[in-house]
């Protein structure tokens, strides 16, 4: 998910009462909810599409989920002590205690891969023990409905807290309950959409090996659904409030082109892209072999989530224009 969503989740967890466990509780929860994304710095040292094969891996795995909260806790305690020495530590701040603060950092950090798992970009939850990708296929990476619900519950909770009302935690608890309901509902919608498209394909005499639901922005009651088998790929659309349809003919995946394997052996960007790609397809375009991923095949995404390999396979893979 985007970092606004992660931050709101940390903030609402704090307003649900967790921030009272220790001084520095609220900033710790918010920072922890974002800290696995320190792997975004890979853009500075990786070239081409190599970042796709690095992101959402080692910093989202079990070792990082234990060590990152520990490092954050140490930093927050050091900051609190530094403020105390300077005489700038807020008087109203609760005592900062290691064990409760580490627990808050752990909760915030673990929330991050869980919500990342809910979209279809992919996450390697077991890295470095396994490089297997996991996908929830339930939420769009930027969900305005989550922004609205979490933002309102946080705002109402803070207003009540400032007014010294004893029920200030209640809006945040309600917001978390609503969030859980929304997530479960979207998981169910994706499951239904995938089953509907699979049934339609089988009725048309097509046996898919993979069917993936993709939530669109805003319209959570709809799903774009991608399907593929060893030779062909296509897409469908499911609208729980309207009609559904599917292209049962599709297009050739093009993944049998010998140039692809040759390029993977010669170019790290091509290897990283195919390591990340869940539903790859390829086609020849002029002097290049273009490889994309069905999940991000729309025109707006094509420039970022595709790679072009020279047909000679003698040089490194080149990005498409706009990447």
UniProtKB/TrEMBL annotation:
Listed transmembrane segments: 58-79, 99-118, 138-156, 168-189
Record keyword NAD present: no
Keywords for this protein: Hydrolase, Membrane, Transmembrane, Transmembrane helix
Entry GO MF terms: hydrolase activity
Keyword Glycoprotein attached: no
Pfam assignment, any one: YdjM
PANTHER family: HYPOTHETICAL MEMBRANE SPANNING PROTEIN, MEMBRANE-BOUND METAL-DEPENDENT HYDROLASE
Protein name, UniProt field: Metal-dependent hydrolase
Organism: Sphingomonas lacunae
